Amino acid sequence: MLATLKKFMFALSGSSIMQVATLLCALIVANMFGPVGLSKFGIVQNTITTIASVLPFGLGYTAINFINKNRHDGFGLAVANFAFQICMITSLLATLLLLVTSVPFSEQFFSDRSLYIFVIFAAVGLPFAAISFIQYGLLNGYEAYRDIAKTGFISATATVAFVFAGTFVGGLYGAIAGFLLTLVIRAALLQHSLNRHCTIQYALPSRETWRKIKHFAIPAGLAGLSLTPSTWFANSLLIKYEGLEAQGVMMAALTVRMAISFIPQQLSTVLLPQYIQSEGEPQRQHLLRMLRYAGLLTGSTLGLCAIAFILREPLIGAFGDGFNADPVIFGLLLLSVTIEAMALPLSYFYARREQMWRYLFTFTYPKDFTLVIASLILVPQQGAMGLALAYVIAIAVGFALLGLTSFWSYVSNRSATVKA
Question: How far is CA 401 from CA 78, 131, 216, 349, in A?
């Protein structure tokens, strides 16, 4: 238990400091340039995050599973190299494509041709962010939480410093340039840490490695194709129908939501390798373990959400003039985070048994497609309130399906055990 707590504290400290840095950067930009400036900064930041999370095609999550199981043999290293090499190739191709299509991209998704310059900024930072996603996955696979924490602290400090300095040197463009520079620094630091655990070979990906992991990697990758893009699409609808200012105000609440959601996500990252290693334990002990995980993830999230809701006025007010905390919208976003945390331990069952296809169609796709459909219906009618409702409806649908199928699997396994 103490070892788990220690790992969690390192993992949490590394990620939480990055979330603090993200929040501080948003505060700096919002106070300097208002809701419209924050929305433009968010176009760069969110476009990078969305596309960068897709490009590894689920190989970061795949790496955590296979490296943890094969850490002391050559296959773990082969998976690490394969994941890194694929990400290098896809990120460079995506960067070129985004640069070429920046104008139609801004017209299609934001209904504003003039925003193409922010799409170009996003293209510049994209490859470094994508590589960082893979680097984090590999380091988590090796359980290198101390390295993650150290890198997170340095990266977070640099992010706040460069964004703050950039606002005085070049205004909003300077802040964005500072942010992009920190992506380069973070990737370099993570690579330095990764070199301590494995040797990355800059070569073509191995077909043999792909053959052995594709049953897990393909559904994990397909999940990534809908996960972050659905969120990005839903948020872009608010710009399209309500404008940059409305989206900027909403982004303040979403920034707080994202900061809270990272706590259970990081705790889940620490708990997953332990769950994978516990295979074969008695069913009663397995159930107690899952209840303990659920209590820890849900309880910590509820506590954070309660504090955030009570302090919503000073939290959102800190973004500056023009920002307000609608209690209903803010409460709905916090509710969606809580349901999301409740669903996390149920996903472990599918990861350990490498049943990612089943998880994809049970939880990920229903949730993400519901978010898109609900946003298309609700955002044009209700604006920010509609977007908040769409978040809750989507995660509730996903959690209900995941809970029902997990309960059915538990009952079936228990019945099979009794008959045996």
Answer: 35, 33, 21, 14
In degrees, rounded to 5, the angle at the alpha carbon of residue 164 between the alpha carbons of residues 161 and 167 is 145
Q: Is the dihedral of CA 369, 230, 255, 245 positive or negative?
A: negative
Separation CA 22–CA 18 (nearest Å): 6
Distance CA 420, CA 414 (A): 10
190 Cβ contact partners less than 8 Å away, ≥ 6 residues apart: 131, 132, 135, 136, 139, 151
Tokens of 12: 């949490």
Residue 206, Ramachandran bin (φ over 0: left; ψ between -120 and 50: alpha; else beta): beta
Write the DSSP assignment of 55-71 as a string of letters.
Answer: TTTTHHHHHHHHHHHST
397: exposed, middle or buried (C-beta count within 10 Å: 0-12, 13-18, 19+)? middle
Q: Quick one: how far is CA 114 from the chain centroid? A: 28
DSSP character for 215? H
Residues of the chain with pLDDT under 50: 2, 418
Residue 151's contacts (CB-CB under 8 Å, 6 or more residues apart) are 14, 186, 189, 190, 193
Measured between alpha carbons, how far is 195 from 364 in angstroms, rounded to an integer? 33
The tens digit of pLDDT for each residue in 327-345 reads 999 999 999 999 999 888 8
The span from the CA of 139 to the CA of 335, in Å, is 31
pTM for the structure as a whole: 0.72
CA dist., res. 306 & res. 54, Å (int): 32
Distance from C-alpha of 142 to C-alpha of 193, rounded to nearest angstrom: 11
C-beta pairs of 306-310 under 8 Å, 24+ apart in sequence:
308/256, 308/260, 308/334, 309/334
Per residue in 175-204, pLDDT tens? Answer: 999 999 999 999 999 999 888 888 888 888
Beta-carbon contacts of residue 401 (< 8 Å; ≥ 6 apart): 362, 363, 366
Residue 227 in contact with residue 261, Cβ under 8 Å?
Answer: no
- Pair 238, 384: CB distance under 8 Å: yes
CA 353, CA 123: separation in Å to the nearest integer?
37
Q: Token pair for residue 126?
A: 């994209």
> In whole angstroms, what is the distance from residue 156 CA to residue 186 CA?
9
Helix (H) / strand (E) containing 84: helix 74-100
What residues contact 402, with CB distance under 8 A and at least 6 apart?
343, 346, 347, 362, 363
